[in-house]
Design goal:
4-stranded antiparallel sheet
Length: about 270
């Protein structure tokens, strides 16, 4: 990750360069924790990083000033208690960019060339399917090695190894796969076929229909995929680019549904 923010204040007489380096390192840890765990409160960040809440607030103030994170009200699931919801801090687009030196313009230009010269949107779809099918070969091995109840978790772990900062959590009638980072988000804004092909391959890997509820490319904070609780079919055939099917999206926004957005992950082992 690129260094985010600069040291704002240092005690008199302290070695400036050493303090500035330490400040940037801790600030990067705060931003990285938000990337890995999703929108987080001050208390959650302090607990995960072993810092005081006052120190976390100081680093967050600097990250907000640098447009790396932004505050917002925490979404409440279930019955709302008295008082205002806690404030959480989420990465901005600028903050996400700091974690990934990508070649977005080059990739977008290449896909645009494919669309214009080699068959329109169908050519882009064919490329997206071939790309994710090749990438998913390693995901398949991880899923086949896991028990039926751990397959979504195994997929999340494999995605994290590829830079997607993914987690899996239980939902009332299934599971949610949450990707807190997307290395191709800016390209997928212009070419949604990348997201559609990924959703199709998740369905094939897990052996059941899945539903994409939110995407970073669409402007949501987390890519969220709902996996219903059905017995998964055994994966025996090799992965091939799947047949397209419409991707249903709920009538409301992801924030209107208990399945539409992944809340911040609570602190736990690991």
């Amino acid at each position: 990750m690129k260094n985010v923010g600069e040291a704002r204040e240092t005690p008199a007489g302290a070695p400036q360069e050493e303090l500035a380096t330490g400040e940037r390192s801790t600030r990067n840890r705060v931003a990285r924790s938000i990337l890995d765990h999703g929108p987080s409160t001050v208390a959650e960040l302090a607990g995960r990083l072993g810092l005081t809440q006052a120190a976390v607030r100081r680093h967050l103030d600097a990250l907000v000033t640098d447009d790396v994170v932004a505050p917002r009200e925490q979404r409440v699931y279930g019955a709302r208690t008295r008082g205002r919801p806690a404030k959480v801090f989420a990465l901005t687009d600028c903050g996400r960019d700091a974690f990934d030196q990508s070649y977005d313009k080059l990739a977008a230009d290449a896909l645009r060339f494919i669309r214009e010269r080699f068959g329109g949107d169908e050519a882009v779809t064919a490329f997206a399917r071939a790309r994710i099918a090749e990438q998913a070969a390693g995901y398949r091995e991880a899923i086949e090695a896991a028990g039926p109840a751990q397959r979504t978790q195994a997929l999340a772990k494999a995605l994290s190894a590829d830079g997607y900062a993914a987690t899996a959590r239980s939902a009332p009638v299934g599971e949610q796969l949450c990707q807190h980072h997307c290395p191709v988000a800016h390209v997928a804004e212009k070419f949604p076929q990348l997201c559609e092909a990924e959703t199709e391959i998740f369905s094939q890997l897990l052996g059941t229909h899945v539903q994409r509820l939110a995407t970073i490319a669409h402007g949501d904070g987390v890519c969220t995929t709902f996996i219903p609780r059905f017995p998964p079919r055994l994966i025996t055939a090799p992965i091939t680019p799947p047949i397209s099917h419409p991707q249903a999206r709920p009538g409301g926004t992801p924030h209107d549904s208990p399945h539409g957005d992944c809340p911040p992950r609570t602190r736990g082992p690991g």
